[in-house]
Amino acid sequence: DVLINQIAAGEVIERPASALKEILENSIDAGATEITVQIMQGGLNLIRVTDNGKGISGIDMPLALARHATSKISAQEDLHKIASLGFRGEALASIGAVSRLLLTSYQSGDKHAWHIQAEGGQVTCPEPTARGVGTTLEVRDLFFNLPARRKFLKTETTEFAHCEEVFRRIALSHAHIAFNLQHNNKTRNHLYAVDTLQRITAVLGKEFSQSAVLVSEQANDISLQGMVALPTYSRSARDLQYFFVNGRYVRDKLISHALREAYRDVLHLDRHPAFVLYLQINPQNVDVNVHPTKAEVRFRDARAIHQFVFHSINKVLASPHR
Ligand code: ADP
Ligand code: MG
């Protein structure tokens, strides 16, 4: 079981940032309104996430670190499928298999808080401790027991940049949650609970929102909100393309293509504009689970989405009031 967890974790936990993403998503699932992320040495040394969510009860703690889907993996070839299946209910087990993990949590109703540890997949029994309602998850020494994996990690700066990118995507899609990001004991980002447009400015900076146009378009059962940068925005847009479908960050060539087309059409410029766009669509018309860890998406009618995005952006760019 320990070995299976290590293999599974190696497949899906690629680097500190992938662990951070899973941990942050758990805090959000737990209803947290305040989340603090403390990272040491790009996450190679420590990732600590503290939330004020509903917490985990002492009874549920061992389960939280256990692999729920062991029965799904029987044959050798199944190991290859893990990555594509994603790991529903397996993130913490996988992280705990390749790090020294400490989970501390208090759920109201319990007499007191509990903590539990996992080291290279060996899970301890929960022990009593003290803390307010919520959860703190610490991940130390990622891949300490997989030296070959650890060797593939990049410099502290690069690994932190990946963590910061994960943080930005989550912060951009959860404006109502307050976030704090620290690296090597220095605050890098302090975000108050605000509305989405204010959050975009807080995350990407005033320069972005001042040189961007607002998008707010609605059709039958689809809507597009957000901001698209105008050519006056100086920064290269390659890494500033944020697209969320029903609140989830997704990477999609279709959307960048639609934006580029609209830019060319209206402004006669061949560019990849920077943008933050939130598409709301009937969940039946999109499959976000194509690859749960890789932010891919499959639209039922990709053409219609492309058209809607293209026309929306076209209209906004061509508006005399922009
Ligand atoms: P999944 O999120 O798919 O259920 P995970 O391995 O990510 O699987 O988490 C396992 C379980 O641990 C969750 O289902 C949840 O019950 C609990 N859990 C993890 N993190 C938190 C948290 N921050 N607050 C409350 N419960 C948590
Ligand atoms: Mg999870």
Automatic annotation (TrEMBL):
Record field: transmembrane: none
- Name one molecular function that GO assigns to this entry: ATP-dependent DNA damage sensor activity
* GO CC annotation, single: mismatch repair complex
Ranges for domain DNA mismatch repair protein S5 come to 200-318
* Record keywords: DNA damage, DNA repair
Name a single GO biological process: mismatch repair
Q: Which domain of life is it from?
A: Bacteria
> What's its job?
This protein is involved in the repair of mismatches in DNA. It is required for dam-dependent methyl-directed DNA mismatch repair. May act as a 'molecular matchmaker', a protein that promotes the formation of a stable complex between two or more DNA-binding proteins in an ATP-dependent manner without itself being part of a final effector complex.
Family per record: Belongs to the DNA mismatch repair MutL/HexB family.
Q: What is this protein called?
A: DNA mismatch repair protein MutL
Q: Which organism is it from?
A: Nitrosomonas communis
